[in-house]
Design brief:
By secondary structure, the chain is mainly β. It is about 5% helix and about 30% strand. A hairpin with a 6-residue loop joins strand 6 (about 130-135) and strand 7.
Length: about 210
């Protein structure tokens, strides 16, 4: 966040009944929080499901101010609980574009120059890999190098059914196709609401979807 910029936090998926001033949409339901000041969000988390929070000013969300917001309900009242054995906090998948520059620079290049709005790669919970291109010092040659970070690992035990919650924080014009090699998936909810279960081998998710 640049000096002088304010920010706000939007709680994506929560209707904020009786607390619209906590919705965090900058310049609509809340003035941005000025630098060197603080603001406390207080509201009732009354809508169970897979949600997320993100900055709602400028390009802050695109450059890393976001996270998962999971509201669980007791298994005895969860209508889908018979379809899974475990619903664990470590089984949240938060995807994000991995760009080779700040989002503002990429946005400007796409709209006013010769840039594109496609990510170089995708991060899962902040982890991933991609090719990187750079110029050798003092030369005109361009060199390609694979950049590695630790891959995200999800641990499961054979014979059990696990609920995974997938959230897309994608900010470029790129949908993601999600699948698990050698497995079918049962979709039981969308955007924080239960749906009729459907078996698939893959699904497509866009920015903001869960």
């Amino acid at each position: 966040m640049k000096n002088g910029e304010g920010t706000s936090i939007h709680w994506h998926g929560l209707p904020q009944r009786n607390s619209p001033y906590m919705d965090g949409v900058s310049m609509v339901t809340q003035c941005p929080i000025s630098e060197f000041t603080s603001f406390r969000y207080e509201f009732i988390a009354e809508h169970p499901g897979t949600h997320w929070w993100h900055a709602h000013s400028g390009m802050h969300r695109a450059d890393g101010v976001y996270g998962a917001l999971i509201i669980r309900e007791p298994r005895e009242v969860d209508k889908q609980s018979a379809l899974f054995d475990y619903d664990l906090s470590e089984h949240v998948i938060l995807t994000h574009d991995w760009l080779d520059q700040t989002t503002l620079d990429k946005f400007a290049a796409h709209h006013f120059d010769n840039g594109n709005n496609r990510p170089e790669s995708v991060l899962i919970n902040g982890k991933g890999r991609r090719q990187s291109y750079y110029n050798v010092t003092g030369q005109n040659d361009t060199v390609s190098e694979a950049l590695y970070t630790a891959r995200e690992v999800f641990n499961v035990k054979q014979g059990f059914r696990y609920r995974f919650r997938v959230i897309s924080n994608a900010i470029t014009n790129a949908a993601l196709k999600v699948s698990v090699d050698g497995h079918n998936l049962t979709i039981i909810a969308s955007d924080g609401g239960d749906i009729e279960p459907v078996d698939v081998d893959a699904f497509v998710i866009y920015g903001g979807e869960r």
